[in-house]
Amino acid sequence: MTITVNIQEAKTQLSKLLTRAMQGDKVFIANRGVPVAKLEPIRLDKKRKLGFVKGSLPDSFFDTLPEEEFDAWSL
């Protein structure tokens, strides 16, 4: 369900609106009838997994760059 409320109503009904958003409703906050913001839950259950790329870097990857190549990357 989609809900659009004006700022004053959002201020007085914030707890209820947050609950509805967490239950999956789309909640928009409007300024004089024009939507300006959306309430949505933060999904903390999707953590980033580190080390997801297969393979490895050669030890030479960490070697100092030759002077001419370093100059090419410098601004």
The strand line-up of the biggest sheet is 1-2-3
Task: Report the count of strand segments.
Answer: 3
Shape: elongated
Residue windows where pLDDT falls under 50 for at least 5 positions = none
Biggest pleated-sheet summary:
3 strands, mixed
In CATH, what is the homologous superfamily of the domain at 2-39?
YefM-like domain
Order of helical and strand elements = EHHEEH
CATH architecture group name of the domain at 2-39:
3-Layer(aba) Sandwich
Radius of gyration: 25 Å
Overall CATH class of the domain at 2-39? Alpha Beta
Structural class, by secondary structure, is alpha+beta
Q: How big a fraction of the residues is strand? A: 15-25%
In terms of topology, how is this protein built?
Layout: E1 2-6, H1 7-12, H2 14-22, E2 26-31, E3 34-39, H3 67-73
Structure overview:
By secondary structure, this protein is of the alpha+beta class. The protein has a domain at 2-39: 3-Layer(aba) Sandwich (YefM-like fold), CATH 3.40.1620.10. Helices cover 29% and strands 23% of the residues. The protein has three helices and three strands. Strands 1-2-3 form a three-stranded mixed β-sheet. The protein is elongated. The N and C termini lie far apart (52 Å). The model has no long low-confidence stretch (mean pLDDT 88).
